[in-house]
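Q: Could you predict the 3D structure of Toxin-antitoxin system YwqK family antitoxin?
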Amino acid sequence: MLLLALAGACARHPVSFNSRPEVAPATMAVAADTLTRAADSVAGRPSLSTARRVVMSKAEERAAKDKEKDAQRKPSKKKKIFLGERVKRGFAKSGGKGRNQAIEIFYYLKYFQQPNVQAPARFYYDPKKHKIFKAAAGELDPGAKVLHGPYKKLQNNKVMETGFYALGVKHLRWERYDRNGTLLSKTHYEMGFPRDANITYFDAGHTMLKEVVPYVNGKLEGDYARYTATGQREWSGQFENGRRVGVWTNYWPVKRNFRHFEYQYPESGYDPEVEEPELLKQFTRDGLAVYDKEKNIDKRGEPEPVAPAGARPGHVLPKRAQGR
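A: Sure. Here are the predicted structure tokens for Toxin-antitoxin system YwqK family antitoxin:
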């Protein structure tokens, strides 16, 4: 008897939270086990799957798989385009390390295009030397990375220069800052030519360029260029603060744009002016070096050497071959 009493005490009793336990809830009376419904059974036996089978054609099946694959694919990268041309991003470092290091962020054409040869200056990036170069005369090599797109120069995390390139030449607004963030200069360009430049032509139709004299706020500032009547570059150089600065180059009046003389002016327009610039290099019509200060070459006064067939510009002949 004791064992029976204990068994009865341990038996489970249904517990209802209804205030009237003697009346079963109506919802419980209607609800039934979903596994026993005819719609969810197979051959009269309960099924654990409540998904109904849908018969699809092979075409629909293939379309569903393609849709699933498309959803799993990574979204394609947006194409970088500037002024209708495909571009790629690049950067270059210079000036050592630490605070003195300068970082240039720029874009260049994905597919090469030759810049305007009459523009005062053309700019390109050399991936082997990791450096941006400025070309004054002649056509660029097809392997050059022609700059095209926004440009920014940073030093010690501060913006030093900003602007835009278009097909290798400066375009739109360019600004320069000092290390304190003070604006030093602001110049507007139109496809390589300063907007305020004094530009003259040989003809009335403005098709034969003669001279480009750059002005900013009424003062000589920027790239200078002068051409012959045949369209060849005669002089190229740069002004700053109304004075000649850097290297000025004179060219032979031939189609190949070979250099004749290179003169050195002060590096800054705020340095003292010089009466006569320093001669750096001199070349023959064939592009052979007659004088080169850096390489300690001086053959002025000697018979002009003749370049052999296929000689490159700037080639120096052996002494035994000179004077022939």
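Q: Anything worth pointing out?
A: Residues 27-31, 314-324 have pLDDT under 50 and may be disordered.
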